[in-house]
């Protein structure tokens, strides 16, 4: 097995830069998710690791082996990289049975027949496909087909799996099931996996670590907890979490408050300490909807310090929880209240901000200060 390392990797398509100076280390056996919006360069990155694209600049290593470095004229073709790819559109051979589809990569490599049989059956067992080995792809459900595609990747025992939105063609329920199955399988096999998705829930539930990209630039790499709790900038903060984090402009006052014009919140002493250089300046305040409470149910309520009064604008009832949009003068904040909350549209309510959970970003750079 092997880790994957990218060092200062760039990819230009003509004058367009799809990937900018990407340095990223994927550890041996790790499940790393490349996450970002459409067009951010995730697929291009994966294709460069696979050898389907050549970087314009930089080095790519699989294990200790340098597989791409345009400056040195090194470019190892895909077939010699010992990787297996699973795509969104998993083209199975329609005229072949499940058995033959899974066996195909081994046959290509002239693996002896007996060994092929042993490995195909092993993989089929692992993926719950044993009963389906004689079927043709058209006789399978979407999820079963996807498992065959996975089987075909696994059977080769590659050093690295590269997956590009492999679950996006499945319906929502099946996707959730396959997410868990795929994660379990990866742990069982211990094969380094790089998984591309634009779906933050997939990233949060599957990744050992998440690498967040935007406009060709790596924004942050960290565990799901790290990127959620300590986002490096406003992009990561806004991209991860649903509904997204609230952002409000605020000025830091001399007496240690965040002044929003319509209301004020008192910073905790250690927060104010860190923000000394920003006194009198504007910053971006961020708080997640789940960290804003209905005052009726809040533990720590200090009027004038962690509270505001607003009017309930719109409620989205999700059953288990309610997404409540509240206007405070001209400002709007979104809160996530428990399903049993009885607030109604038009109600005037007091809300409490959990000051331990707030984020402060530099207004110019978007970088996290707190
Ligand atoms: P998606 O989730 O939509 O697949 P992505 O993050 O995977 O997006 P990429 O496919 O890596 O994005 O594309 C990054 C950018 O590079 C896009 O703006 C795309 O249009 C551009 N791009 C990709 N391949 C080429 C190419 N062969 N020629 C020119 N531009 C390209």
Automatic annotation (TrEMBL):
GO-annotated biological processes: carbohydrate transport
Organism ancestry: Archaea, Methanobacteriati, Methanobacteriota, Thermococci, Thermococcales
Protein name per Swiss-Prot or TrEMBL: Sugar transport ATP-hydrolyzing
Occurrences of domain ABC transporter (ranges): 4-240
MF GO annotations: ABC-type transporter activity; ATP binding; ATP hydrolysis activity
PROSITE patterns registered for this protein in UniProt: ABC_TRANSPORTER_1, ABC_TRANSPORTER_2
Record-linked NCBIfam families: PRK11650.1
One Pfam family this sequence matches: TOBE
Family annotation (Gene3D superfamilies): 2.40.50.100, Nucleic acid-binding proteins, P-loop containing nucleotide triphosphate hydrolases
UniProt topology in membrane: Peripheral membrane protein
GO CC annotation: ATP-binding cassette (ABC) transporter complex, substrate-binding subunit-containing
Chief place where the protein resides: membrane
InterPro entries, per the entry: AAA+_ATPase, ABC_transporter-like_ATP-bd, ABC_transporter-like_CS, ABC_transpr_MalK-like, ABC_transpr_MalK/UgpC-like, Mo/tungstate-bd_C_term_dom, NA-bd_OB-fold, OB_MalK-like
């Amino acid at each position: 097995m092997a880790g994957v390392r990218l060092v200062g990797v760039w990819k230009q398509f003509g004058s367009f830069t799809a990937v900018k100076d990407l340095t990223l280390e994927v550890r041996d056996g790790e499940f790393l998710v490349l996450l970002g919006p459409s067009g951010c360069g995730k697929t291009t990155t994966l294709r460069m690791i696979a050898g389907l694209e050549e970087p314009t600049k930089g080095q790519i290593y699989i294990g200790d082996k340098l597989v791409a470095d345009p400056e040195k004229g090194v470019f190892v073709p895909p077939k010699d990289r010992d990787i297996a790819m699973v795509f969104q559109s998993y083209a199975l051979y329609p005229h072949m049975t499940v058995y033959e589809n899974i066996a195909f990569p081994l046959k290509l490599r002239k693996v002896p027949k007996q060994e092929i049989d042993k490995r195909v059956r092993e993989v089929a067992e692992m993926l719950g496909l044993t009963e389906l080995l004689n079927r043709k792809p058209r006789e399978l459900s979407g999820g079963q087909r996807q498992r065959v595609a996975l089987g075909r990747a696994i059977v080769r025992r590659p050093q690295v799996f590269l997956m590009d939105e492999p679950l996006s063609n499945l319906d929502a329920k099946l996707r959730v099931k396959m997410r868990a199955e795929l994660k379990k399988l990866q742990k069982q096999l211990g094969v380094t996996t790089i998984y591309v998705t634009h779906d933050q829930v997939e990233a949060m539930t599957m990744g050992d670590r998440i690498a967040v990209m935007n406009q060709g630039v790596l924004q942050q790499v960290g565990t799901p907890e790290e990127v959620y709790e300590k986002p490096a900038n406003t992009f990561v903060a806004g991209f991860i979490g649903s509904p997204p984090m609230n952002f409000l402009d605020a000025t830091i006052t001399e007496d240690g408050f965040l002044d929003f014009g319509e209301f004020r919140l008192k910073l905790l002493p250690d927060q104010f300490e860190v923000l000394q250089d920003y006194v009198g300046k504007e910053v971006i305040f961020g708080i997640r909807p789940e960290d804003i409470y209905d005052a009726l149910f809040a533990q720590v309520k200090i009027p004038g310090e962690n509270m505001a009064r607003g009017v309930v604008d719109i409620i989205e009832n999700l059953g288990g929880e309610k997404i409540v949009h509240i206007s405070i003068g001209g400002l709007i904040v979104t809160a996530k209240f428990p399903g049993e909350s009885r607030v109604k549209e038009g109600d005037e309510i007091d809300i409490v901000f959990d000051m331990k959970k707030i984020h402060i970003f530099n207004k110019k750079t978007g970088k996290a200060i707190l």
